[in-house]
Amino acid sequence: MFVSLCLEIYILDLLNGLEEKRKELIHSQLIEFISNMTVLLKAGKTVRSIFKESANWFKDPLSTHLLEVANELELNSTLDEALDRFSQKCRSREANLLVSSLKINNRIGGDLISILDNIADSMRHNLKLKSQIKTMSLQSRYSGNIISIFPIIVLVLLYIFMNKTVVDFFSTSPGVILLFIGGVLEIAGVIVMKKITSIGK
Predict the structure, then answer these.
(1) HEC-encoded secondary structure of the chain
(2) Exposed/middle/buried for residue 6 (C-beta within 10 Å: 0-12, 13-18, 19+)
(3) Where located (predicted)?
(4) What is the rounded CA–CA span in Å between residue 160 and residue 166?
(5) How far apart are CA 185 and CA 90, in angstroms?
(6) Residues 84-120: pLDDT tens digits?
(7) In angstroms, rounded to a whole number, what is the distance separating the alpha carbons of residues 62 and 22?
(8) Quick one: angle between helices 173-196 and 112-161, nearest 10?
(9) How many domains does the chain have?
């Protein structure tokens, strides 16, 4: 039970890490996409045509989402509907910000190029800040991981070098109770440590 819970925590942490990396990639790709969009808007392109043309300019995951928008627009979906689905697929605050700005501009007009420039600048600042925080917290996360697994390492070493004593102790009722309590505390410690060191993620 203890091992399965630890494994579950590890898998969840791994999945969260992969999702964070995906969001970071989307973040950086959106910055480039917005920069390209402002250039194309100055050249007289429309938002619809930019989404259609941009699908081949980027790698996944943004490429797939742009292609889906382009396909929906080809099927005569409204721009707002296509943008809403784009935001849902990207699953990022940056995409939500971009979509909200485009939808508002589509309804009431305004200086879209200036708005997009401001959004891109804000995204660059946020990405730089996240990178700095992640770097600063990297050592803390490694220290937290070491502290989390240290009790397990000690128990394994005791089992290797003091096999009979350890087996005899954990064969008794008090030993089983202490092992259970230790397992619960270890899991709680891992969860708390992950929460404390998650600031850079």
Answers:
(1) CHHHHHHHHHHHHHHHHHHHHHHHHHHHHHHHHHHHHHHHHHCCCCHHHHHHHHHHHCCCCHHHHHHHHHHHHHCCCCHHHHHHHHHHHHCCHHHHHHHHHHHHHHHHCCCHHHHHHHHHHHHHHHHHHHHHHHHHHHHHHHHHHHHHHHHHHHHHHHHHHCHHHHHHHHCCHHHHHHHHHHHHHHHHHHHHHHHHHHHHC
(2) middle
(3) Cell membrane
(4) 9
(5) 37
(6) 999 998 888 889 999 999 999 888 888 899 999 999 9
(7) 10
(8) 160
(9) 1
What is the value of pTM for the model shown? 0.64
Q: Residue 24 in contact with residue 133, Cβ under 8 Å?
A: no
Q: Do you find a cis peptide bond into 151, omega within 30 degrees of 0?
A: no
Q: What residue type is 14 in one-letter code?
A: L
Instruction: Give the whole-angstrom CA distance, residue 28 versus residue 30.
Output: 5
Highest mean pLDDT among 21-25, 80-84, 158-162: 80-84
Structural domain boundaries, residue 154: 2-200
Distance CA 2, CA 48 (A): 54
Q: What is the Cα–Cα distance from 141 to 8, expressed in whole angstroms?
A: 19
For residue 86, report the phi and psi dihedrals to the nearest 5 degrees: -60, -45
Encode pLDDT of 64-85 as tens digits: 999 999 888 888 888 899 999 9
